[in-house]
Specification:
With 279 residues, the protein is mainly beta. It is flat and about 150 Å long.
Amino acid sequence: MIVCPNCNHPNPDGAVQCEACYTPLPATTNCPSCGATVQADAAFCGQCGYNLHSAGVPHVHTAVAATVTPDIPVEVPALVPPDPLLELLQPDALGISGSTNSRPPESSLPPTEVAVPPEPAPQVPVTVSSPPEPVPNVVAQPVVSGQSSIPTPPPVEPTPTGTAARTQLQQVTARLIHVQSDRLIELPQNFSVIHIGKPNDRIPPDIDVSGFPNSEIVSRIHADIRVEGDAHYVEDVGSSNGTYINNLPLLPGNRHRLRPGDRISLGKGDLMTFLFQLA
């Protein structure tokens, strides 16, 4: 019986592949001791425990010749006692005192050359010379030619202060013109958000339209004008009657970039209308 190594299915002797999973089965042989079927690569027999590796190699007993010691006397020379170690403790036992304990050779230079400092360099007498004579200033005379003359450039006129003032950038101011009453409203500067409406307890308006005609159609919190750099945007903030730009409704949450001449109507019917201008 051969057990499949993949699914452990018992297969009959001599089978090549497993009957259950079709896995190739290992080769088998018989144990030389008990005759049981074992795998060819097994080390021991599963029935009797015989060492299968020793079965193919016969054990050969080699004859070992006996060693006979001949009766030949061996002469051992007498040991020579070593020299006493005390000799190494004596001075210059190794003969190296001439190089280590000897005094250093004296310098071949005479002592005067080392002890005497060098002589200072001789000083050169400095003679005080008289100051140089001033060089006379020679004024270059213009060369006048009879044939041609160099024209003198006209004097540069001073630039008037008014020209420099005109070159400076003027601050652009935005304003609204009420169409029904022809009133001019300057938009507050340095404001990022300008609230348009009527007095209320939540957000006080920056532009109060309660004094204009037909102000009843305007909500207390009606619209905002946002300033971003040089651009102005208007948006409806949830008014009751809506906001219209050039007679077109502006949806809440959307914003419109204002351009000079745009009409801003607060409410329906074009009753509260403003013109946007830049000055």
